[in-house]
Amino acid sequence: MEKEEILKKIDNAEMILVGLGEDFDENIRLQKSDVYKEGMKMLKEADCFHLIPAWKDFCALELQDLVTPALEKLKKMIEGKNYYVVATATNSKISKISWKQERIVMPCGNSSMKQCRNNCDKQIYAVSEEEQEVIRSCFRSMKRGETPSDLRTLLGKCSKCNAEMELNNIYAHQYNEEGYLPKWETYTKWLQGTLNHNLVVLELGVGLQFPSVIRWPFEKIVYFNKKAVMIRVHDTLYQLTEELSGKGYGISQNPIEWLTNL
């Protein structure tokens, strides 16, 4: 699919639905780092899976930032359009882009909020700058090859049940989904208004880690909307289903590189 044709599709669209998948967590580049892999091992052995998004963000600081420029380019492309962004990636760079207010939802969470490990009060709380620095300090120790003894208590204890506090994301012991559900409700209402409208669905870097959030629902949306077209970009899982034959384009490319070169 030629660049000019893609840009024309986007320019002519009445509505645009964007899905940002796990490729935006930069897993491939991070996996090349022994420090990153050793840190992941430490977190898993300490049963601190909730710190994974923060550890990824921390280790990504050592890499050239390719994600932010790509997302800024995407935002510029869809500016002025009626759009919604759904991201299963937990990369904090996604939430820092100045999308339209209330037009992005991250159902897998990230590292900006915290919750009780037992989810006893069904509440979420902002992670303070002081707490963020505590996490960064711990990560600096991990980077030196040291295994911190206080990984489980970095965010303090719950004032109600005295359990450890954890980052509010999909890796939490008992994920509190209240952090994203209000925006998810807004998103589902927005989706209802896409039927019979000229809709472009941009599915970028979405694999099979959480297919029920973006991949399968997006296919269903395109299938039922006669005016919808899908543009699916992924290194290997770029193929469209037989039901979507003639209704989209599968592009075999890294989505970050694809956006950068578009």
Task: Please explain how this structure is put together.
The chain has 262 residues and is an alpha/beta fold. 36% of the residues lie in helices and 18% in strands. The chain has 2 domains: 1-26 and 66-107 and 180-262, TPP-binding domain (Rossmann fold, 3-Layer(aba) Sandwich), CATH 3.40.50.1220; 29-63 and 110-176, no CATH class. The protein has helices at 3-12, 27-30, 34-45, 52-60, 67-78, 92-95, 129-143, 181-192, 215-224, 255-261; strands spanning 15-20, 82-87, 104-105, 109-116, 124-126, 165-169, 199-204, 228-234, 248-252. It starts with a helix and ends with a helix. The model has no long low-confidence stretch (mean pLDDT 95).
> What's the end-to-end separation, in Å?
11 Å
- CATH level-two architecture of the largest domain: 3-Layer(aba) Sandwich
Structure classification: alpha/beta
Strand order of the largest sheet: 3-2-1-7-8-9
The pLDDT mean sits at 95
Approximately how much beta-strand content do the residues carry?
15-25%
Largest sheet: 6 strands, parallel
Total domain count: 2
Overall outline:
globular
Low-confidence parts: none
Roughly how much helix do the residues carry, as a percent range? 25-40%
The value of Rg in angstroms is 19 Å
- Helix count from the secondary structure assignment: 10
CATH class of the largest domain: Alpha Beta
